[in-house]
Amino acid sequence: MKRRTILQAALAGAAAVAVPHASRAQTARKLSYLTWNIADQEQLFKEEFADFRSANPGVEIEWLDKKGTELPAFYQTQLVAGTAPDVVDLQGAIWVEYAANGGLLDLTPYLKKEPEVAKLFNPDYLASWQYQGKNYMLPFYIAKTLLYYNKTLFKEAELSAPPSTFDELLSYAQKMAKGEKTGLLTLNFDWLYWPLFKMNGIELLTPDMKKAAFNTPQMAAVLDRLAKATDSGAINKIYWTGRWVEPNGAFAGNTVGMLHAHSSSYFFVKGQGSWINESTLGVAQAPGYWATPTNHGFGISKSTKNPDLAWAFLKHVTGTKWATRFSQSRKLLTGNIAADRAGLEYLRKDDPLGAQVLQTQLEHTDKFTGNWPLPFDAQLKDAFYPEIQNAVLGRKSAKAALTDAERAVNRVLSRNS
């Protein structure tokens, strides 16, 4: 059975197999809270919980934290058992699947009743958790793609500023390709590479999201150029095959001119690249200001027995006080406007370059792409990307690869219509 079929069956049968009062999240004054690989924040969460309990005497909070590879399977298992955690941290587009299949509580009525809550957040980030006009999540922490560049390699290639167009991006990459040095890398999972197509005016789907829209002469021309740049060494081949460790590690090795990645990459690359400082690493928006967000948000499981208490807890952990503390502790942004302002000010004193990276996350937030609210997002990726790989790595012509990708994507769309 496919994942979505299993999820639909799980949600349909959850009520029948739910274990009464003794189960997780079933007691009147108990909340369970599931986070995604942030066990290092234990001390901060203890303080958050104590603060929440002082305002809600008698409430018990059970905190669960799972690694990224484990959380989706764990959450789905809990849905089947009827013991889903009350509040859950979800990343990327996986939340859409749960929202579409009845796993998450619609937060729209709460936001309408308390409009001041919505005003806490950057509206573009908040809107990225809407599905069919309903809001299912509040921001926990946020990230979007940007362009890092090696100032030393730029200087060697007589380049003085970051590229502002796709043509310049490829031209600069070619100028830096020499020997073991290459010009450009990207992270290619979760549609993080899509800004490179969007800046060429290419759309993945038609406006009604019913059919593929990318099989065009313009897309074929872009793929041909990317294939030639890859073959020449202007684009590092890891661009198309690595996910997280490989491209970030290659850029940290000081032999690649540019890295298109999200803000989280900075801290990984900095930890591995002793060469990185304000004089050697540049930070810029990608051409056209297009970026793909890859955010974490908090939702409430629809099966919760305490929706109002869960909402109060959600407001507590995403409110300005604790979002600020989290921003400063983890050196990231939260989507909470005031918290991010304070978090950036704090980071500027400790890591000015890191603050420059995070500042890009608050700019041009009206230029998001690659974040389509589709419950079959994972299926689309699996249908689309292998054929793009085939084209840019020279296994197929661009025209043949696009024809096959279009057929595969339309098949997914037809199955899910």
Spatial sequence of strands, sheet with the most strands: 2-1-3-11-6
The number of distinct β-strands equals 11
Distance, first to last CA: 18 Å
The CATH topology of the largest domain: D-Maltodextrin-Binding Protein, domain 2
CATH superfamily of the largest domain: Periplasmic binding protein-like II
β-strand percent reads 5-15%
Q: Could you name the CATH class of the largest domain?
A: Alpha Beta
Task: Characterize the overall form.
Answer: globular
Oligomeric state of the chains? single chain
Based on the structure given, which CATH architecture of the largest domain is correct?
3-Layer(aba) Sandwich
Count the domains: 2
By secondary-structure content and strand pairing, the structural class works out as alpha/beta
Radius of gyration: 22 Å
Report the helical percentage.
Answer: 40-55%
**Unreliable segments (pLDDT under 50, ≥5 consecutive)?**
12-27
Mean pLDDT: 93
Number of helices: 20
Q: Mind describing the biggest β-sheet?
A: 5 strands, mixed
Brief summary of the model shown:
The chain has 417 residues and is of the alpha/beta class. It is 48% helix and 13% strand. The protein has 2 domains: 3-143 and 294-362, D-Maltodextrin-Binding Protein, domain 2 (3-Layer(aba) Sandwich), CATH 3.40.190.10; 145-292 and 376-415, Periplasmic binding protein-like II (D-Maltodextrin-Binding Protein, domain 2).
